[in-house]
């Protein structure tokens, strides 16, 4: 048995490969331990487009997959690998696959796993097309499974205000039966929770209003919440608006009433110098001030985030998905992406707790792709 503490996996969405990296032999020079090939996965499960992986208490590895070999979302489901990273099969019971696949999180004390939905690979791999939303090729549902049984118990329809629910997180406290999911296209942070009868419900906890804009493909621009996280002490929730360009911090000590406590702009389509401008209700146009970091203009928008264990450093990258990068931020393809470190003050709570002392980790590296 290979202890997970000495391994991590890299899941490649488009190639379908899963790379297992050995960090025990030499932690300063990780080496490739094994590659799980897509042909083996397809043959045994029919699954393609792996995305999220979680280690289970059983020693197995659970991976969400977004479709079948033809790019149909109807073929999405969950891949189960054993402790030696061999394909065991599908985790969910036969006929209990989600409508669309993407992220998932589980809370064992409540015997529940909940997964989210992006869209059909045949649609999102070609770039974003608003018509595909109307055609039903993107998701708006949460799928509630029994844990660890794999039985689909309930499907929550988030409706027109919950389009493209991507990243999903339970609170870290294992006794809590509540969590959040970021709905990208409608830019709402939705809270889900268990009711007294044991079923699950949801409500909008935070809403990012679209901005009226000029010189863009649409008259209004959504924030596009692509990633979020919850601090280990469950005090703060952080999320990003990939198109608007801001990173936000909310106090969620009362999960029903999040309070904005920090906000900083680190890119986006409406920063000064961009041809795209936002228009206020009075008709006046404006753009966001985005600081240069070590003399470099920030490209793209904040996309993936990770918080240090002590909650004091927030790491931010700016690349979403190559075809979407090319569509919305062509500079990322031409010049490369970057990773930022944002210093966090968790004590102020006065709207200024995300510090403007940002840097490229590693100093001089300003154009390499870090992830």
Write a compact overview of the structure shown.
The chain is mainly beta. It is built from five helices and 27 strands. About 10% of the residues lie in helices and about 40% in strands.
Describe what this molecule looks like in 3D.
It is a single chain. The chain is globular. It has 5 helices and 27 strands. Mean pLDDT is 90; it is low at 1-5 and 356-371. It is mainly beta. A hairpin with a 5-residue loop joins strand 22 and strand 23.
Key terms:
371 residues; mainly beta; 4-stranded antiparallel beta sheet; 5 helices; 8% helix; globular; disordered N terminus; disordered C terminus; Selenium-binding protein 2
Total number of strands: 27
State which percent range the strand residues make up.
35-45%
Number of helices in the DSSP assignment:
5
Uncertain stretches of 5 or more adjacent residues:
1-5, 356-371
Indicate the multimeric state.
single chain
The largest β sheet comes out as: 4 strands, antiparallel
Instruction: Specify the structural class.
Output: mainly beta
Could you outline the blueprint of secondary structure elements for this entry?
Blueprint: E1 7-11, E2 18-22, E3 31-36, H1 38-45, E4 48-55, E5 61-67, E6 77-81, E7 87-90, E8 104-107, E9 112-115, H2 121-124, H3 130-134, E10 141-146, E11 152-157, E12 165-170, E13 178-183, E14 188-194, E15 200-207, E16 211-214, E17 220-221, E18 225-230, E19 236-241, E20 246-251, E21 259-265, E22 277-279, E23 285-286, E24 304-307, E25 313-317, H4 322-328, H5 330-335, E26 339-344, E27 354-359
Antiparallel strand pairs: 1-2, 2-3, 4-5, 5-6, 6-7, 8-9, 9-10, 10-11, 12-13, 13-14, 14-15, 16-17, 16-22, 18-19, 19-20, 20-21, 22-23, 24-25, 25-26, 26-27
């Amino acid at each position: 048995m290979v202890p997970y503490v000495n391994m991590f996996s890299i899941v490649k969405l488009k190639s379908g490969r899963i790379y297992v990296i050995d960090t025990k032999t030499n932690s300063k020079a990780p080496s490739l331990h094994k590659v799980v090939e897509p042909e083996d996965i397809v043959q045994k499960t029919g699954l393609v487009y792996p995305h999220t992986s979680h280690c289970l208490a059983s020693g197995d590895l659970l991976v969400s997959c977004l479709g079948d070999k033809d790019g149909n979302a109807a073929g999405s489901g969950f891949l189960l690998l054993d402790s030696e990273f061999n394909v065991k099969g599908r985790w969910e019971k036969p006929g209990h696959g989600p409508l669309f696949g993407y992220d998932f999180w589980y809370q064992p004390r409540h015997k529940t796993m909940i997964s989210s939905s992006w869209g059909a690979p045949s649609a999102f791999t070609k770039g974003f097309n608003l018509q595909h939303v109307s055609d039903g090729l993107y998701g708006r549902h949460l799928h509630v499974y029994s844990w660890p049984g794999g039985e689909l118990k309930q499907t929550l329809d988030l409706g027109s205000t919950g389009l493209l629910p991507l990243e999903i997180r339970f609170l870290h406290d294992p006794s809590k039966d509540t969590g959040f999911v970021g709905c990208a296209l409608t830019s709402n942070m939705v809270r889900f929770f268990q009711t007294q009868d044991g079923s699950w419900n949801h409500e909008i906890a935070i809403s990012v209003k679209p901005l009226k804009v000029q010189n863009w493909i649409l008259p209004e621009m959504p924030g596009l919440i692509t990633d979020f996280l919850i601090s280990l002490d469950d005090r703060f929730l952080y999320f990003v608006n990939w198109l608007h360009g801001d990173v936000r911090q909310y106090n969620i000590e009362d999960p029903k009433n999040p309070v904005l406590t920090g906000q900083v702009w680190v890119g986006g389509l409406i920063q000064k110098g961009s041809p795209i401008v936002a228009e206020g209700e009075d008709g006046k146009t404006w753009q966001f001030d985005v600081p240069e970091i070590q003399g470099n203009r920030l490209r793209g928008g904040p996309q993936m985030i990770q918080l240090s264990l002590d909650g004091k450093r927030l790491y931010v990258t700016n690349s979403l998905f190559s075809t979407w990068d090319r569509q919305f931020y062509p500079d990322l393809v031409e010049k490369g992406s970057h990773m930022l470190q944002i210093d966090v003050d968790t004590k102020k709570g006065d709207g200024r707790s995300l510090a403007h002392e940002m840097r490229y980790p590693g100093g001089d590296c300003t154009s390499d792709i870090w992830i």
